[in-house]
Design brief:
Layout: E1 2-7, E2 14-19, E3 22-28, H1 30-33, H2 51-61, E4 70-73, H3 92-100, H4 102-109, E5 118-120, H5 123-132, E6 144-149, E7 156-164, E8 167-175, H6 180-190, H7 199-206, H8 214-220, E9 221-223, E10 229-231, H9 236-239, H10 251-279, E11 283-287, H11 294-303, E12 308-311, H12 318-331, H13 350-360, H14 370-379, E13 384-387, E14 401-405, H15 411-420, E15 429-433, H16 437-440, E16 455-456, H17 459-462, E17 474-475, E18 478-480, H18 486-499, E19 503-508, H19 520-529, E20 534-537, E21 540-543
Helix pairs in contact: 5-12, 6-10, 7-10, 10-11, 14-18
Length: 545
Amino acid sequence: MKVLGINAIFHDSAAALVVDGKVVAAAEEERFSRRKHGKRPVPFAAWELPDQAMAWCLAEGGVAPGDLDAVAYAYDPEEVDHEGGGLDPQWEPLRTTYAKRVPQFLQTALPGVDTSTVGFVRHHVAHAASAALAASFDDTGSDCAVIVADGRGERTSYLAGQYVDGKLVELASQELPHSLGLLYEDVTAHLGFARSSDEYKVMALASYGTPRFLPELSEAVHITDDGGFRTEAIDWERLVPSREPDAEPTDAHADLAASVQRRMEDVLLDLAHWTHRRTGARNLALAGGVALNCVANTRLHTEGPFERIWVQPAAGDAGTALGAALHTAAELGDAPEPMRTAALGRGWSDEAIEAELVRAGLHYERPGDLAAEVAAALAADEIVGWFQGRSEFGPRALGQRSLLAHPGHEDNLERLNAVKGRESFRPIAPMVLAERAPEVFGRGPHPSPYMLFVHDVEPRWRDRLPAVTHIDGTARIQTVDRADHPLLADMLAGFEHRTGLPAVVNTSFNTAGRPMVDHPRDALECFGSAPIDLLALGPFTVRRR
């Protein structure tokens, strides 16, 4: 079966193609449009079909629109309760009307598509499928529980269930307006960050604070006996005055962030225990925007009842495009294959990359040993732009579209945050060979290839890796498997040979407000506008003069 999945209802417009149960391609529209999260005036940002991403996915799979057996849209307008849940009466009817008309819109976006093949998949069911049906456990199926938590779907904000023989058995859900994701969005906005975009900044800021408002939050946010929870209205201003976006966060702001972070972790742990009691499953799959909170994920791993946890790398709404496709493929009789990599986006041949370099009129070289050249540049404390293979699906840079730097110099945190235009309190992350990781990074799951957990930096390494050690002594690591990433592995080994350090800084290849680079032209533009010393673009290098 050939199934195209689409997300275009809240944010993170995306498309994914699944053929005979295998994920062939997946990409966010922002990588083509160059508008991060598809930012446009509300509500039009949310209702933008991923025209370019859809066309590319089909081209990558060699599938014509008329060849599709199904098109799965990750939102079911029939499930919306316009009378309840505190939904916006101005926009919600328009949102559902738009969704209902998607088959007609697709006739223009994908000429030749059979609109009778278009079906709707509930938002949280799509999230659940993106995790459980793609999870790379060795024994998925009846032994896989699933938890989805985010801002909202059609009328709910949460789902807990279990997959039995590839089918979802729903055990609990939470009706709006109660929502952990919307609670976190509220405090994100109160702290002066962008709602539904900058929640990860609150997670970073939380490490600088003390959860002194936990009693108030525990009273307002609590679980219920039926596997759900309540999030009562909170007067944030009474706790801490709001922050203007251009003002520095105060200690009180950090304390509020720490309090909300801790309460959300506690509630998630309680929900995980409830789900485990109902399922008895060994494995847990996670998705939804809340699952991008790597600090909470680590507490679930270390303190929760499940033996193993797998988090969808595109856990946010972009992942629902993939989940809708996987769910529909399973409904049609295919057996979805585990997702072994997040490198599901566009890739470029050496010839295509060289053509862009020639077009740009740049002096470039093709070194005999690219990994050694980059390792030497990093050892000399240069910043390297790294553009290799197919781009990542999801928000994390995982060695395809990365900025790399030396982790042993403390000022590289400030240096890279300045390059990217980021707040000074935000940490930067390390990548490390999988076989070296347990010696350097403790508490947390190994391997950890998708940067979705935090690990304790072992005390003897903290002074040696100051750039990637957060204020709380942790790091959000990416482990690199030599079989999956031989070039990265050679570079890491070469860097350790030169410096004695087994990790390098890995942050996304972009600047503030821009999506990660995707096309070679994007990489050249970023290289030309930011103080990056060396660009490793496929097999070629370009050095700043």
